[in-house]
Amino acid sequence: MADVLLWHFPISHFNEKVRWTLDLKRIPHRRLALGPDYLFRAWWATGRATLPVLFIGKRAIGDSTRIIAALEEMTPAPPVYPRDEASRRRALALEDWLDEELGPAVRSAIVGTLFSSDDPGAAIDVLTTGMPPAAAKTIRPVLPAFRRFYFFRHKIDAARVQAYRETVLGALDRLQRELGGRDYLVDDAFSVADLTAASMTCAIVQPPEMQYRPTIPYPAVLASFRQAVLDHPIGRWTAEMYRRHRGTSAEV
């Protein structure tokens, strides 16, 4: 098998999708947590200034959805794509919706709240989880400029933090309807749809199987939002998906 290397952002839910897929398929791989220079390195490798980036041999792949597609082709078992064509289309449609709607709303709700709190440095502590120690030291002296850049890059409006929380809870309501009382979102088996949904809410639920836990407890300003997610049926479902399927790391 070709050498597999993951450039990742440890706290990110999009990166968690890829780590989970690598671990589920038991693909031996190395991981490198990049610091603030990841924008330039990722752009150099893939033409996209985003993480994760997965290297399979000399081939560099950006975007979590494209990476999972490549891993499914490289190591089909255990599958994360349903075999039935209609079911596969449904799973991929749910993955796309979760990536485009729930994922950004979760990021905006958490980071927007932290940056807008009395202690915006807490946002740096959370964002640099798992990164080299120098990452936080580099960002802290320029925290106001970094906050403006982060909000611009991710289209976060400080005045809409409460709306982002409501978007998250609304998406959880939709997921509950999509489940319809079943264990899994598509058919009766774990798929990329379940993996993505659970990954998107991992940073809020923080199940025991979470591999990269924030270096600080979430401040009190996030307590009511986090509790609302934990009390939601999808919050409990996320914890169950992690318990059943997250397993151990295949990192070498």
Concise summary:
The chain is of the alpha+beta class and 252 residues long. Helix content is 56%, strand content 7%.
Explain this structure to me?
There is one protein chain. With about 250 residues, the chain is α+β, with helices and mostly antiparallel strands. The chain has 2 domains: about 5-75, 3-Layer(aba) Sandwich (Glutaredoxin); about 85-245, Glutathione S-transferase Yfyf (Class Pi), Chain A, domain 2 (Up-down Bundle), CATH 1.20.1050. The protein has helices at about 15-25, 40-45, 65-75, 85-115, 120-125, 135-140, 145-155, 160-180, 190-205, 225-230, 235-245; strands at about 5-10, 30-35, 55, 60. It has a 4-stranded mixed sheet with strand order 2-1-3-4, with helices on both faces. Helix 4 runs parallel beside helix 9 (about 190-205) and helix 9 packs across helix 11. The longest helix is centred in the middle third of the chain and has 31 residues, at about 85-115. The radius of gyration is 18 Å and the shape is globular. The model has no long low-confidence stretch (mean pLDDT about 95).
Which characteristics define this entry?
252 residues, alpha+beta, Glutaredoxin, Glutathione S-transferase Yfyf (Class Pi), Chain A, domain 2, 56% helix, globular
Number of domains: 2
Examine the coordinates and then state which fold CATH places here, giving the name of the CATH topology of the largest domain. Answer: Glutathione S-transferase Yfyf (Class Pi), Chain A, domain 2
Main sheet strand line-up: 2-1-3-4
Query: What CATH architecture of the largest domain do you see?
Result: Up-down Bundle
Q: Find the structural class using helix and strand composition.
A: alpha+beta
Low-confidence stretches: none
Largest sheet: 4 strands, mixed
Name of the CATH class of the largest domain = Mainly Alpha
> Ends: how far apart?
14 Å
How many strand segments?
A: 4
Number of alpha- plus pi-helical segments: 11
Shape: globular
Q: Strand fraction band? A: 5-15%
